[in-house]
Every structure is written in structure tokens, then in C-alpha cells.
Write a sequence for this structure.
């Protein structure tokens, strides 16, 4: 069995304070690359970014606290470390004592993306077992990716996780094409159940007019849903627009 890497140098000491309970949104954004998923993440209130995608680094230019994932660190252990610190409203600092994030000053936790995180977990498990994933290893992958996704959603913050799309075949009808989450493993058939809000993102360009659209109801075979009644689509959606729509829908009940 290959030796595991040490925990990344960007994770170090933390200081504990108290946490406040609140009702929060857990949101999954999915769709093609360039459809506005990362843009939506950047509009969230006081976000902390778990960056597995290179494109997420554009958010670093806005000064948001961020930890970038790569196979130079222990991926699964790093996510669990972050979850523990977030749950306890702690501070994460690097080995030199420089603060990375104070979770007392965070409203939203962003994972960009589940697709890339899954790829990193596959590489990590292959390193652990010393070979490409075989039948007996896929259960470990499912356990880890599902634990990461669900544990983030259980935290006392708004959470926004992103995911790409891919063309696949229907499990019951191999002649039928369907649009699936873009990552390997059986969890891709269940990931939508772990979120209250699933937004399908689409970029529309007609002549000189262009806009980002999020769908909150099933759209052209793509899964989209909201646990409370929302407009079927929201143009140029921001997190504020989304939360305002949820608040309005709650008030109308």
C-alpha cells in the first residue's frame, strides 16, 4: 500500500468560538462549463471557497478566503478538517500562523466542484491501494464523496456546491440518452437527493444579448428542483436574488 501524503501546509492551528444556529440553503448548481455556476458562487454572502477547479481561482481575485485542493494534500482528510473547523466556528491558519479563514465571518461555504473533488478522491484512493480502482474500491469512493457532500450540507451555513454535466445512458434503457452529473461512481445517480435546491445553469446568447439562466424545475431532461415554490427560471441569478425568491415563497405560504 502506498504511503499517504501529509496534510497540506495551508492547514494549521485553529481557535474555537461559539456557533449560532440558523435556517440555511443548500444549493447544487450544475450544467455545462461557462454557464455561470462559479459566477453564482461569487455573489454569495461572505463566502469561503473550497477550490478544486482551476477556474475558481478567479474568485481569489475578489479576496474571498479560500483553500485550494490538489493531490499534494490528503484530500478526504482536508475536507473533514474544514468541516470540523466550520462546524465549531473556528479559525484555520497556515503553519506560519497566517489566518486563512475565520468561520465566525463566513455565511456561505462553496465547493467548486463535486466533479473535480471526485477526480481527486479517485487519485487519492488509487495511491492508497496501489492500483487503478477495481470493483472492491468503488464503494470506498462512494462513501467518501457522499460523506463530503452531505457533511458540508449539514453545516450551519448556506452551502453552494457545483457540478458539471455529461451525456450518459439510462440505467433501465441503454438506447436512451440522458444528461448526468459529470463524475464517476454510483453516487452520481443519487446526488440530487442530497440538496433542497438543484439549479440547472444555462448560458443564453441571442444576437448581442447574453444572459445566465438558472432553472429551478426540470428542464429538457435535466434535473432541477426547489423544496419551495420558486419561479421556473431566474435570469442572471445571484445568491441575493435566490434568497429573496425563497423568502417571498415562504411568505406566501
Amino acid at each position: 500500500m502506498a504511503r499517504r501524503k501529509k496534510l497540506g501546509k495551508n492547514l494549521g492551528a485553529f481557535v474555537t468560538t461559539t456557533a449560532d444556529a440558523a435556517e440555511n440553503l443548500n444549493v447544487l448548481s450544475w450544467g455545462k462549463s461557462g454557464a455561470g455556476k462559479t459566477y453564482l458562487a461569487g455573489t454569495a454572502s461572505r463566502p469561503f471557497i473550497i477550490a478544486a477547479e482551476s477556474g475558481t481561482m478567479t474568485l481569489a481575485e475578489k479576496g474571498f478566503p479560500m483553500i485550494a485542493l490538489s493531490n499534494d494534500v490528503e484530500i478526504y482528510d482536508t475536507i473533514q478538517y474544514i468541516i470540523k473547523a466550520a462546524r465549531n466556528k473556528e479559525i484555520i491558519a497556515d503553519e506560519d500562523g497566517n489566518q486563512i479563514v475565520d468561520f465566525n465571518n463566513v455565511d456561505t461555504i462553496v465547493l467548486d466542484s463535486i466533479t473535480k473533488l471526485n477526480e481527486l478522491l479517485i487519485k487519492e484512493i488509487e495511491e492508497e491501494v496501489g492500483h487503478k480502482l477495481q470493483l472492491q474500491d468503488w464503494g470506498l469512493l462512494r462513501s467518501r464523496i457522499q460523506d463530503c457532500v452531505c457533511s458540508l450540507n449539514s453545516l450551519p451555513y448556506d452551502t453552494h456546491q457545483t457540478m458539471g454535466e455529461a451525456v450518459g445512458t439510462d440505467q433501465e434503457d441503454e438506447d436512451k440518452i440522458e444528461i448526468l452529473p459529470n463524475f464517476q461512481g454510483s453516487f452520481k445517480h443519487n446526488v440530487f437527493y442530497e440538496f433542497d435546491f438543484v439549479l440547472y445553469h444555462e448560458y443564453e446568447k441571442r444576437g448581442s444579448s447574453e444572459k445566465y439562466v438558472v432553472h429551478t424545475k426540470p428542464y429538457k431532461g435535466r434535473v432541477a428542483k426547489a423544496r419551495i415554490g420558486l419561479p421556473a427560471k431566474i435570469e442572471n441569478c445571484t445568491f441575493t436574488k435566490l434568497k429573496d425568491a425563497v423568502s417571498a415563497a415562504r411568505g406566501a405560504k
